[in-house]
Amino acid sequence: MIQTTTTAHTNIALIKYWGKKDPVLHLPYTDSLSLTLDGYYTTTTTSFLAGDTDQVRVNNQVAGPQFFKRTQHFLNLVRTLNNSQQAIAVETINHVPTAAGLASSASGFAALSGSLNKLFQMNLSRKELSCLARRGSGSATRSIYGGFVQWHQGKDNSSSFAEAIDENPSLPIRLISVVISKQAKKISSTEGMKHAVSTSPFYAQWPQVVNCDMKAMLQALKTQDLEAVGKIAENNCLAMHALNWTSRPAFSYFTKETLQIINLVHQLRSRGYCAYYTIDAGANVKVITSLQDVAAVQQQIQLNFPQAQLTPLKPGPGIQ
Ligand code: PMV
After folding, report:
1. Of ligand 1's atoms, which has the minimum distance to the CA of residue 137?
2. Neighbouring C-beta atoms of residue 250, cutoff 10 Å
3. What is the tens place of the pLDDT at every residue in 167-216?
4. Can you give the pTM of this predicted structure?
5. Residues in contact with ligand 1 (CB, 6 Å cut-off)
C-alpha cells in the first residue's frame, strides 16, 4: 500500500488577513505576513482505500463530523483536480494543543496538501502547493514555508499564493504563546471576518492600513529591527480587532484576561524588555519578544498569571 506523509508547522500572522473577497477560493482582500513556528505542527499520512468511503482519523481517533466534512470537501477538490474517484484514508496527528489559540487548520491543511501532492504524484511546486493549501484554510497558504512568509492576495486561484521572505531568520525573534482560555471561540474566523467586511464602517480603510504596515514590516525585516517588527505587528493586530469592535452588532474575541495580558506587556515594555503582543480570532495572546528577553518575559507573565499555560516558540521550518 502506498502511503505518504508530510509535516507542516503552524504560523502566526504579524500582518493579519481578515476578510475574503472570494469565499470559495479563499482570496483575501489584502496581503498578509506570518512567522512559521517550530513547536506546533501537524503530521498527516494519506493512502488510497479500496471501496468508496473516505476515512479520517485525528490523533488516533475517528474524526468528528465537522472535521470529517471539511477534510472530505478538500479531498473532493483534489480528486477533481486528478480526475480520480478513489477513496482516501487520512491519518492526522496534531501537535498543536487544541486550546492554544494557534490555528491547527493552518498546519493541518498545509500537511494534507503536501501529503496528497505526493500520493497523487502531482509534482506541485511550493508556490502551487500554497495555492492548494489555501483552498482548505486561508492561513494554511503560508504554512508551506518556514520563517517569515508573505501571502500575496492575488486576483484569482493561481495568483493568490505565498512565498518565503526569509526561511532561516537570523533575527533573534521569539514568541510566547500565552493560553489563558481553553474555551472554544464563539465566532469562527470565517464568520467573524465576514461580519466585519459587511458591517464595519472602517473596513474600507483596512486594505490601506495593511499596505502601509506591510511596507513598514518588510523594511523592518530587512534592517533586522526587532522592536519595529513587534510594534508594527501589535498595531496591525489592534487594527484588525478594531474592525470587530466597530462591526454592527459589535463583537470581540478579547476577554478580561486578554486585556490584563495586554497591560502587562505594556508594563514589561516600559521596564525595558522587548515585549509586544498579537492576538488572532480567540482570547489567547502571543507575546513577541527576543532571544535575550524570552526567559525573563516568560517568568514575569507566569508570575502574574500562574494559571496561564506558556510555551516559548522559535521560527520553524516549511513542510517536510
Ligand atoms: O484562514 P483562517 O480561517 O485560519 O483565518 C485566519 C485569521 C487570522 O488568524 C486571525 C489571521 C491570519 O492571517 O492568520
Report:
1. 1
2. 13
3. 999 999 999 999 987 777 789 999 999 999 999 999 999 999 999 999 99
4. 0.96
5. 13, 16-17, 32, 103, 105-106, 137-139, 189-190, 280-281
